[in-house]
Amino acid sequence: MALVTTKKLQEEYERVLLARDMKPEMATKLAAGFVEMANEGTYSHGINRFPVFIDQVDKGQIQLNNTPECVNSMGALEQWDCKFGPGVLNGLICSERAMELAREFGIGMVGMRNSNHWMRGGTYVLKMAREGFAGIASTNSIAVMPAWGGKDHRVGSNPLIMAIAGDPPVLVDCSMSQYSYGQLQNYVLEDKKLPVVGGFDDNGELTSDPHVLWKNKRLLPMGFWKGSSMAIVLDMMLTAISGGNSVPALTEDMGGEFGVSQFLIAIDLSRTIEKDQFTNEMKRIRDYVLASEPAETGSVMIAGSEIEKFIDKHEKAGGIEIHDEIWEQIKSL
């Protein structure tokens, strides 16, 4: 494993982006977005997916210098056309706008069409939570998962993402597949079995072998039929709210995961609950959960509480450990 400083990672990402004629200030911001995800522990999207992102750039699916534009304003709800620009920058820009709307109306929502993979979707609602808001988000994808009871791909992973202010903020970034492809790749690279079953093998039997699932892509919906249903209704909502592409449109018409539909919602908590009451209630919920009687295996934790540990870990180690194969791919771009 290569040990790479965040400074070196930022420099490599900027080098690759500038070589493709991205505007310098946009390249710096985009590279920093990828590095932040990696430094906060999301290696699957902050590092492993960067070569995939660049491949889409080289194919013309992502337009590096395009920025989103508001095309329809309805008070607290706006629709933005992202013009196939980088999903990370789209998410950062539109999350700022959602918070601006929330400051004015109490709640702000931005529906985004013609966007691209925004990597760790939790980035944008976590940004809201760190500024005192609650945030909700979702994005669709090409069909990557069988519907419950089906065998071929008809459903996107379509995560539901939520965060709320706190110390630390709470973040849930939840793909509708039992494992996201990013997490699945991590297990493939480490040659480790999944902790719980993640899908079906070629004989239709449940399996925890990541290599089988990476090849046949028969991922299990989270919560079986519940996850399948959630993924479908989220796609319907994303398409209707953004006026953009659905999972079938991305899969059959676009022929790839670009031009996706997304939404971001910000809620101004200063308008919904008194500050002291909020602090006390969030602490009570946290303490109540953490006082659980321990099970035979595992430990009780609050979602998002590991982020600072990853940052501290990388600082103490002097960098982030990157799989040699992925690091060589990045350096060769």
UniProtKB/TrEMBL annotation:
Domain of life per record: Bacteria
InterPro entries xrefs: Mal/L-sulf/L-lact_DH-like_ah (IPR043144), Mal/L-sulf/L-lact_DH-like_NADP (IPR043143), Mal/L-sulfo/L-lacto_DH-like_sf (IPR036111), Malate/L-lactate_DH-like (IPR003767)
KW Iron (keyword) present: no
Key word Transmembrane present: no
EC number(s) stated in the UniProt entry for this protein: 1.-.-.-, 1.1.1.37
Keywords: Oxidoreductase
GO molecular function, a single term: L-malate dehydrogenase (NAD+) activity
Catalytic EC class: oxidoreductase
PANTHER family associated with the record: 2,3-DIKETO-L-GULONATE REDUCTASE, OXIDOREDUCTASE-RELATED
Protein name, entry field: Malate dehydrogenase
Organism of origin: Buttiauxella ferragutiae ATCC 51602
